[in-house]
């Protein structure tokens, strides 16, 4: 058992390295791509594209439920080492997603065109371009939907190197598209949507080819297993509440901001989300490597190891987000002025709040994985999903009272904290999670690290207020990073973890000598 856990930890470390390779390359390419796309489209068209795309993504409240079910069932059967059941799950999943993509396409076309014509706030002359962009965004979404079983198979098998290489191809393709629309004489919004849709088809074919060549279960057969369908749809049905709540919070917030403040503010919101995605990418990659182990260890009946993974991954994921977020929060104005040729109004505050929200959310991801692994999610989704659904009505009421656009994120941060505590209570009832231990070893731990980490950068920013922007950025960033590292090591880590850390450092030094 000890040898197996050691092998699992090495696999997590190896997969995390592959995912970080993917992240670093795609991060650099995507940041530069965003700059080019914003410059090519302009603030208004960029905002329109993100609203249209966000409206399409809202349909994932339906499709995302089955996606979560597919990932859970594939990983669970791998943990139980049942190849026959695994093949049934995969074939059933592909058929479900294919027919679901057709249904979503038809429904979305009807509702989406009505929304674009009668509800969306944008200049009249841009309506035809927005409609074409909507069609292409919907195609992109449906292609991604069909790809879900293949992506889930890669995650379940923990072959993260495939994700790394294919994602790099995807990022480079988007950079190529950005240059095409920059020099194109055609309507840039329409052609951007078209080329993104074509790229999604190419990436889908690559994923499919890789899976068929490497995984025994990824051969599609016509399978109708009534009991399996009932289990998957039952799981998906209850998961619909949580999926809908998450999508409505994010994409519904974009639609609300558009309705009250217009597409220019949507551009600021979209850019902030891109910054957040960059930061959370580091923790997401780490969690993507850990999550299959949480599900497999639960399926194998090793509850103690499962809880240890949940606690440790929550802390480490938070530290990663804090490490990257703190310099960005204190230097948001300077970094945005370098990244973008024109910074939309309100972007700085959006960026700071979305990073705080990322830190709140990352704590919940391992808890969600554990709950999904159990398959017993009815009461959990009713309680937690119900809380998340409060985001939109509360934000709407505050907007009607004249609150600023960033209010939608403030509401999400507060509700996110309530959802975290609700998850803990539900997991205690469902799997016997020790809530007091979690609060002590995770929540209070990261709270102390956060408070201590902020003190030195705050004073550094005040002391450097009158000096050159670049020098201030370098000083505050260095102090922020140093402060987080010291806080994590001496406040966040236990004595055993510190000894292990210093032992590994000494071993590296002696090996180098």
Model description:
The chain has 513 residues and is mainly α. 47% of the residues are buried. It has 18 helices and no strands.
Q: Beta-strand percentage?
A: under 5%
Helix content: over 70%
Could you tell me the radius of gyration in angstroms? 23 Å
Judged by helices, strands and strand pairing, the structural class is mainly alpha
Instruction: Please give the alpha-carbon distance between the first and last residues.
Output: 34 Å
Topology at a glance:
Layout: H1 2-57, H2 60-80, H3 83-118, H4 127-156, H5 160-183, H6 188-214, H7 226-261, H8 263-299, H9 303-330, H10 332-339, H11 347-362, H12 365-374, H13 378-388, H14 391-400, H15 407-431, H16 435-463, H17 469-492, H18 495-512
Helix pairs in contact: 1-4, 1-5, 1-7, 1-8, 2-3, 2-4, 2-7, 2-8, 3-4, 4-6, 5-6, 7-8, 7-13, 7-14, 8-9, 8-11, 8-12, 9-11, 9-12, 9-16, 9-17, 11-15, 12-15, 13-15, 14-15, 16-17
């Amino acid at each position: 058992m000890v040898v197996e856990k050691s092998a699992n930890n090495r696999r997590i470390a190896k997969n995390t390295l592959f995912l970080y390779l993917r992240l670093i390359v795609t991060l650099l390419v995507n940041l530069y791509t965003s700059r080019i796309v914003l410059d090519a489209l302009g603030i208004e068209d960029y905002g329109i594209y993100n609203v249209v795309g966000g409206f399409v993504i809202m349909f994932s409240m339906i499709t995302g439920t089955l996606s979560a079910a597919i990932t859970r069932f594939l990983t669970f059967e791998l943990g139980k080492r049942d190849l026959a059941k695994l093949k049934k799950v995969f074939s059933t999943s592909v058929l479900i997603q294919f027919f679901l993509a057709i249904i979503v396409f038809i429904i979305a076309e009807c509702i989406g065109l009505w929304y674009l014509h009668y509800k969306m706030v944008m200049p009249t002359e841009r309506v035809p371009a927005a409609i074409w962009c909507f069609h292409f965004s919907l195609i992109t979404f449906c292609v991604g939907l069909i790809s879900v079983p293949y992506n889930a198979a890669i995650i379940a098998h923990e072959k993260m190197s495939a994700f790394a290489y294919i994602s790099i191809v995807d990022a480079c393709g988007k950079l190529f598209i950005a240059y095409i629309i920059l020099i194109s004489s055609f309507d840039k919004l329409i052609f951007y949507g078209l080329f993104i849709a074509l790229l999604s088809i190419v990436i889908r074919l690559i994923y499919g080819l890789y899976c068929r060549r490497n995984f025994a279960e990824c051969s599609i057969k016509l399978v109708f297993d009534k009991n399996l369908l009932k289990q998957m749809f039952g799981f998906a049905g209850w998961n619909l509440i949580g999926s809908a709540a998450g999508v409505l919070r994010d994409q519904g917030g974009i639609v609300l901001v558009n309705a009250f403040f217009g597409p220019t503010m949507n551009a600021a919101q979209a850019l902030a989300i891109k910054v957040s995605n960059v930061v959370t990418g580091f923790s997401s990659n780490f969690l993507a490597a850990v999550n299959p182990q949480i599900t497999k260890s639960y399926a194998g009946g090793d509850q103690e190891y499962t809880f240890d993974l949940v606690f440790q991954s929550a802390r480490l994921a938070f530290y990663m987000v804090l490490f990257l977020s703190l310099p960005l929060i204190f230097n948001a104005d300077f970094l945005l002025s370098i990244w973008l040729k024109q910074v939309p109004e309100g972007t700085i505050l959006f960026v700071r709040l979305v990073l705080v929200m990322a830190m709140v959310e990352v704590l919940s991801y391992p808890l969600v994985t554990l709950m999904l692994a159990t398959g017993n999610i009815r009461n959990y989704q009713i309680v937690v999903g119900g809380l998340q659904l409060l985001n939109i009505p509360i934000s709407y009421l505050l907007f009607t009272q004249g609150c600023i656009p960033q209010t939608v994120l403030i509401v999400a941060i507060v509700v996110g904290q309530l959802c975290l505590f609700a998850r803990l209570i539900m997991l205690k009832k469902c799997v016997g999670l020790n809530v007091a231990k979690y609060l002590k070893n995770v929540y209070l731990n990261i709270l102390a690290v956060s408070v201590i980490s902020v003190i030195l950068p705050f004073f550094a920013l005040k002391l450097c207020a009158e000096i050159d922007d670049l020098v201030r950025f370098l000083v505050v960033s260095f102090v922020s990073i140093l402060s987080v590292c010291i806080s994590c090591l001496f406040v966040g880590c236990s004595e055993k973890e510190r000894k292990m850390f210093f032992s590994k450092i000494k071993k590296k030094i002696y090996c180098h000598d």
